[in-house]
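Support case: user asked for a sample of complex input and structure output to validate their parser. Sending the pair below.
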Amino acid sequence: MVTRIIQLLLSPLIALAVGVLFLGLSRKIIARIHRRYGPPLYQPVIDVIRMMSQRSISHGSLFELGVVLALAGSLVTVLFIPLGGTVICRQNPLAHGVLCPLSSSGGLLVVMYLMLFGPLGLALGAGDSANPNASIGVSRKLLLALAYEVPFLLVILAVMSHYRTISITEIVARQQESGWGVLSVPLSAVAAFLILPAMLGIRPFDLVSAPQEIASGPLAEYGGSYLALLAVQKGVHLFVVIALYVDLFLGGGVNLATFLVKMLVVFVAAEMIAAVLPRIRIESAVRFCWKWPTALALLQMAITVLSKSV
Amino acid sequence: MDRNQITKWLKSPAKMAHKYSLHAVYFCTGCGIIEIPPVITTRWDAERFGVLPVATPRQGNLFMITGYVSLKTLKAIIRTYEQMPDPKYTVGFGSCPINGGMYWDSYNTIKHLDRYIPVDGWIAGCMPRPEAVFVGVTHLWTLIDKGKADGYLRYKRYYAAYRRNQEMLFGELQWPPLYPTEAEAEEARP
């Protein structure tokens, strides 16, 4: 019981710290690829303190609640994702070192639902600000969610039917016994990596919060502490998506340290691709997401289902 | 981070964070904006000092006015300034906002920007080099440290005077006052 409470407090804190660190790292990586020196690694922390100390301008109660909904949704998702550790006893995964407070309930299905809370909260809040730029940003965000959800669901279906379970802890344990998911469901891993920038909202899919076109989109009217909370939410969301990728395809982690190293590898790879690509338009994004990642995911699912039924 | 800065961070984190996270609203008036792209991109890289351009006034705390200010842009400048959340710092860039510069006898540009919005510092020159922006930023750091970058407080205290100057230029303004003017404050008093 006590370990469970500690885990419930610990894993969102890890997500907060690592997520904000990743935000700083992404700015540093992009700066170095541009041959700049770049800001210090802790620059997002400075930014968050600065935004917190500024006067916050609200546009209504839904404007505030949307931020809370987005951040809470992202933080709750962390509780369902195992952050490293080995499964010793299948019947009771809580009895030992898997850092996943709510591993016994829900699994992938709950994570899939909860991951929609971020875009939804932001859409509700930004809609209340009645800024035309925010409206365009929200419509782009929901369209982009529609674009990447199709291949994402196919990927998750393939993984679930390959391992015959919806529990992420179980999937991680099976991978640690018999090889990583990137080898057993390779096309799904490729498809998931292709839609990773769309899920993270980084280039080439950063059309939602494009500062040069639509004045940073849904964030256009957010300032002060609301913007600080949304920056933190961005970090936590980044953590959730990459942690899910590591859990599904890279075999989780034997402990927290190896898990974070794997996350770092995935994140740096995604960022290096993002740093050299330009931004694409929303219709190109939808066309891309529904073409290559969907085709790959469908193919992998057909292969998985056929090989399992034989 | 310097080690001797840690005590400063512990003493007043908000002030230090404002120093090292100046998110700038570049108001693209006149020719000064042509000096800003080299400042924020690869050649001079302002991001290593925490200076980053933002797209909307709600997210920024540094307001740069880069060039001459015509009457039409002054309206937009005032509205943008009033939308930025406190604390905020204004920097006039180039000689035109200081005293009109080469537009000293133009009928359609204002000569002294600080009559209409409070300005915390100036970067003089026509044009100032990108290095001058960094000198300006370090001066602004010193001003924030000493508590002298108080333009937003001056705007609040002398709002009636600023508003009068703005109305002398434009006649009736199309937006309500940011702070209660003296007449309204008199009415609100029981």
